Amino acid sequence: MAPKRPLQGYPSLADRPDELVAANVDLVQRIAHHLAARLPPSVQLDDLVQSGMVGLIEAARQFQAGQGATFATYATIRIRGAMIDELRRADWTPRSVHRNTRRIAAAIREVETREGRTASDAEVAAELEIGLADYHAMLQDSASANVLGIEDLGGPEMEADRWLAGTEDSPPEQLAQAQFRLALAQALGGLPERERLVMNLYYNEALNLREIGAVLGITESRVSQIRSQALHRLRSRLSDWTGEGSESLL
């Protein structure tokens, strides 16, 4: 029988992977529910849990106590990574959405380069040669593709993964990571006030879209559009890092 209180990271369980798995099943459920809240209804919670359990089992088999981290920390990386890998393999996002995400980022980059300031919704829509309502609809569609978001830019989890595995980046890689983090911080700081606030509430305060809407006095769908546009804007401003055709932001 599994213990009533999960023993995440308890060193004496490190050589008993079955008990580590049994003690941390709830961790898979929590991560799956958190990720599912950011995905379209077509993605089934059970599928996320199933792939997350694979990640948990692999984590239990590979975990080595004494590396400076609890099992829960190590397992969280493996579980979430397994879920993201499964989503990528499934590729449930329509090609048209991928195409539009690139178009939006390119339009934002074009307007901001030309005008030397932050592009407004109306200016981006005009650059795309569509109406403002159609542009907002594109943002809403692409919001469903925002599985990863800014936490996957620059590979913070990859850094943690290498650290937990007892390996380190080479000095050039460490410098590149530091430079990217600086560029990302500057790009976030340069977002329009409302976009910056939404990103802070979503990523730092861990509020969901409905809760953010209540704070700002706007609809949940509008919050989704604002977050989507912020991610597109970041993608356009970090294109030198993410690659012209990269989907890493979305």
TrEMBL record:
This is RNA polymerase sigma factor FliA. Residues 47-60 form the RNA polymerase sigma-70 domain. Residues 20-92 are annotated as: Sigma-70 factor domain-2. The keyword Transmembrane does not apply. Residues 187-235 are annotated as: Sigma-70 factor domain-4. A motif (Interaction with polymerase core subunit RpoC) lies at residues 47-50. Sigma factors are initiation factors that promote the attachment of RNA polymerase to specific initiation sites and are then released. This sigma factor controls the expression of flagella-related genes. Pfam families: Sigma70_r2, Sigma70_r3, Sigma70_r4. It comes from Marichromatium gracile. InterPro entries: RNA_pol_sigma-70_dom, RNA_pol_sigma70, RNA_pol_sigma70_r2, RNA_pol_sigma70_r3, RNA_pol_sigma70_r4, RNA_pol_sigma_FliA_WhiG, RNA_pol_sigma_r2, RNA_pol_sigma_r3/r4-like.
